[in-house]
Design brief:
CATH superfamily of chain B: DsrEFH-like
Number of domains of chain B: 1
Mean pLDDT of chain A: 93
Helix content of chain A: 25-40%
Distance between the termini of chain B: 23 Å
CATH topology of chain A: Hypothetical Protein Ychn, Chain: A
Number of helices of chain B: 4
Number of strands of chain A: 5
Oligomer: heterodimer
Strand content of chain B: 15-25%
Number of domains of chain A: 1
Strand content of chain A: 25-35%
C-alpha cells in the first residue's frame, strides 16, 4: 500500500510539497490536475496515473509524458481502494 | 468497524466556504460514537490561513474546544507557512507547527485520511 496522491490543480502545490519528501508515493492526476502530466516535477512518485477522460477532453494526449499511465474510472476505483489516499482534489 | 486513526487535512482557507468548519466538525464526529476513532488535524497550503490569530472562530470554536479537551492540538505545516511568509508569532496560540517530514509521519501513522 502506497500513499496515493489524488491531485487536482487547485491544491496541487500542497501535494507537490509533500511529494518531494515522500519515498512511498503514487500519483493520480484528475480533472485539471492532468495538466501536471505535461512535465511538472512529481517528486519521488513511483507511479503516475492520469484519468484518461480528463486528458482526452483537454486534448492533452500528446503533452502527457510517456511515463504517465492513462486509466479509466474502474481502474481509478481499484487504485483508490488499494492504497492510502491523500486527497488533493 | 474498529477504532482507527484518521488524519484530517484541511487545504482550503477560512471564509467563503464551509470546508474549513466542516472539516473540524467531521473531525469531532469521528472521535464520537462507539468506535472513538483517534484523529489528527493538519493544515496545508492555503488551509494554513485558518491558523492565524485574527481568524473568526465563530463557527469553529466549539469544535476546537472539544478537540483540545481530548488532548488534540491543531497542526500546521511549517513549509506551507514559509511559502506564504507567515511567521510563528502570527499564529493563534493553540496551533502546533510541524515540519513537512513530521507531516509525512502523520500520514504514515494514519489508517486513512480525509481532506477538506
Amino acid at each position: 500500500m502506497a500513499n496515493l496522491y489524488l491531485i487536482d490543480r487547485p491544491f496541487a502545490e500542497s501535494a507537490l510539497g509533500l511529494l518531494k519528501q515522500d519515498a512511498d508515493a503514487e500519483v493520480v492526476l484528475i480533472q485539471d490536475g492532468v495538466y501536471l502530466g505535461n512535465g511538472a516535477s512529481l517528486g519521488k512518485a513511483k507511479r503516475v496515473y492520469a484519468v484518461k477522460r480528463d486528458v482526452e477532453r483537454r486534448g492533452l494526449g500528446q503533452f502527457v509524458g510517456s511515463s504517465v499511465k492513462l486509466i479509466d474510472y474502474p481502474e481509478l476505483v481499484d487504485i483508490l481502494f488499494a492504497n492510502k489516499v491523500l486527497n488533493f482534489a | 468497524m474498529a477504532q482507527r486513526h484518521i488524519l484530517f487535512t484541511i487545504n482550503r482557507p477560512p471564509v467563503g466556504s464551509v470546508y474549513f468548519a466542516e472539516g473540524l466538525r467531521a473531525t469531532v464526529g469521528a472521535t464520537a460514537g462507539t468506535d472513538e476513532h483517534t484523529v489528527d488535524v493538519l493544515y496545508l497550503g492555503d488551509g494554513v490561513y485558518f491558523t492565524l490569530k485574527g481568524v473568526d472562530r465563530t463557527d469553529t470554536a466549539k469544535y476546537i474546544e472539544t478537540l483540545t479537551a481530548a488532548g488534540r492540538k491543531l497542526k500546521v505545516e511549517q513549509e506551507s507557512l514559509d511559502e506564504r511568509g507567515i511567521s510563528k508569532d502570527a499564529l493563534a496560540g493553540d496551533i502546533e507547527v510541524i515540519s513537512r517530514a513530521a507531516a509525512l509521519k502523520l500520514i504514515a501513522n494514519a489508517d486513512f485520511t480525509a481532506a477538506f
